[in-house]
Specification:
With 245 residues, the protein is α/β, with parallel strands linked by helices. The protein has helices spanning 10-19, 34-45, 55-61, 84-94, 109-121, 139-144, 160-169, 206-211, 229-244, and strands spanning 5-8, 23-29, 50-53, 70-74, 99-104, 126-130, 154-157, 173-183, 193-198, 214-217. Helix 2 links the parallel strand 2 and strand 3 (50-53). Helix 1 (10-19) runs parallel beside helix 2 (34-45) and helix 5 runs parallel beside helix 9.
Length: 245
């Protein structure tokens, strides 16, 4: 049995409650306000017990994270692991062209959370991350995603190239975000698509970019060679959504 996971922050806790995941308990600092009321009301509707504790107790349980006076204990076993095919099946059930984000070596939890947040907001059907040498889904990532990790299917794979091959078998084209590729607005991003984003330090691995059907780039208006990975992901996801409109 998986041990409970502590998540913190107003929006992540609210999203956890709304998502239908089993939330064992919510702890609130002894304070009042709109955020506290929203959490209390959501917890009451979902039959989640709420405890009021001193802020010092919240600090301890959140291990120094920016908790906003609220934390929750969530059973990670309530969310079934998914694979690439299940993400594509989800898109098919919705009658939509799949849009999948594959992340190559994102190590910063804030970047990972921000990318997942953009993926959720801009209609991606799932995110694929490596099991090794990359950030996992930690409380800090949940917080940075504003709770989007509770809604976006996330597949963890041993090999991203195999994930690209799985997309190809289902007739999903892949596009790697690199320097010197086709400008994103000139590329066809309106069909079934796997968008590959690399880390700021190294970008998408050359072998992985070569395995993709397309190599795309974001034209910049200044003499600057790169963008933050989460910013780049948001721009490219927006372009894909714009083309699908």
């Amino acid at each position: 049995m998986s041990s409970p996971r502590v998540i913190f922050g107003v929006q992540p806790v609210l999203e956890a409650i709304k998502s239908g995941r089993r939330v064992d308990r919510v702890w609130l600092a002894r304070s009042t306000g709109g955020a506290t009321s929203r959490i209390k009301n959501a917890a009451k509707k979902a039959n989640v017990p709420v405890s009021y504790v001193p802020k010092e107790e919240i600090d301890r349980r959140a291990s120094g994270g920016a908790h906003q006076g609220v934390i929750a204990s969530v059973d990670p076993g309530e969310v079934e692991p998914v694979d690439v095919d299940q993400i594509l099946d989800r898109a098919e059930e919705l009658g939509e062209a799949p849009l999948v984000v594959l992340l190559d070596g994102i190590e910063d939890p804030q970047n990972l959370g921000a990318i997942i947040r953009s993926a959720y907001a801009l209609g991606a059907h799932g995110v694929v991350i490596p099991k090794n040498r990359a950030a996992g889904i930690t409380p800090a990532v949940v917080r940075a995603s504003a709770g989007a990790t509770m809604h976006v299917p996330i597949a963890r794979v041993t090999n991203l190239k195999h994930a690209i091959e799985a997309l190809s078998r289902r007739e999903v084209w892949t596009a790697a975000a690199i320097l010197g590729g086709t400008p994103a607005h000139e590329a066809r991003l309106d069909g079934p698509l796997g968008l590959v984003i690399g880390s700021e330090a190294k970008g998408v691995k050359p072998s992985l970019a070569k395995a993709c059907d397309m190599q795309i780039t974001i034209p910049l208006g200044a003499d600057f060679d790169s963008l933050n990975a989460s910013v780049a992901a948001g721009i490219l996801l927006y372009e894909a959504r714009r083309q699908r409109a």
